[in-house]
Task: structure prediction
Amino acid sequence: MKLLLAINPHAGGKRALKSIPEVKKLFSEFNCEIELVFSEYPSFFTNYIANANLSLYNGIIAAGGDGTLFEVANGWMKNTSEIKPPIGILPIGTGNSFSMEMNIANNNLRKAVEIIAANKPELVDLGHCQTANSEFFFANILGTGFVCDVIVLAHKLKFLGKSAYNLAVLHQILFLQNRTVELLIDGKTIKQKNLLIEISNTKYTGKDYLMAPEASFNDGFLDVIIAEKMSRLKLLNLFIKLFKGEHIFTPEVQYLKAKHIEIKSIERQPLSPDGELLGTLPAVIKCIPKALPVFV
Result:
């Protein structure tokens, strides 16, 4: 079994780089031949895999976090090879939401390698997003609003290291913004002030947040979570409930399943697919059923 291993050396605070000896040993145990390729710049894997001869491999492995999988999946979808192998996941990043759907704990490399070596792929759904200036697929989640504002600010504060994200959250809570957006969800129009909108293909986001407790990556639907305008105190309470998925029962949150979503806004709000920053509103999002073969 020959595998192309796409490694983000900076994933998980450079934990991915330190894991290479263990990864090599584990794949050797299961008689898998691996070819390593390292990310050199943002979107590197999208470009690399889009242009690679994928017929040379029995699997393409995303070794990193959700951002690595995002790039690998987009590269795979853009590749025009007639024969394209399944994608595998080594969860060695900071956020490994997709692997949690497969009941693989963060950094449980042995279980991840066992799943890949078993060579039993299944087709999973992907989300597809089209904006005025970008087009991409997402495996986990697409968001706009509060969470996206946090990511934008955290990128500007990255010189502060690990404190950047926490400080960005605090800043956005203090200077809370609710924006008016218009959504068209499977023909139903919703126009109101919202705090955030998250469109999920999987249950989890980040490490521990059970954003969409009813989501499944093979049900042909995307789960839409809309948090309406609320106070700072209610927002803090909402985040506490996110750990158990209980936020969906609060009056300010709408939870819907959909195949086709359109989002319009007067402001050019940024979008965050799988923890990345890419594109702005307006956007058209749809579920692509059984789009990607994944070792599960």
In short: The CA atoms of residues 1 and 31 lie 7 Å apart.
